[in-house]
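Q: How would the structure tokens look for this protein?
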Amino acid sequence: MASSRPSGNLFQMPEPLPAAEVLTPLVESPPLRVERILSSGQTTSPGQWYDQTEAEWVVLLQGEALLTYGDDARLSMKAGDYVLIPPHTRHRVDYTSQDPPCIWLAVHFEAPTPP
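A: Here is the predicted structure in token form.
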């Protein structure tokens, strides 16, 4: 009997790899969103910053990457590393490896408002 539950493999990659970053929604149930991000050398455009209203917990499952924050702090990431990016924390991606490509799992959610 076939399952009606969504399933897949986070490590499966399209061939050939597309020139653009690939975002694949896995779960969308507000206020929670889970997505797989596949990067192979793509970075945030010069002068652009992410400033999200939601918190983002992200784990790098494969590859290497470099995040830069608005205060110039940098975070080098390798497979298995994860980070919680609070809402309105300016950040950008300044490096993603091509071989192997980066596979990210990102969880976006509403963070509690401090009292």
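The chain has no helices and eight strands.

The radius of gyration is 15 Å.

Upvote if useful.
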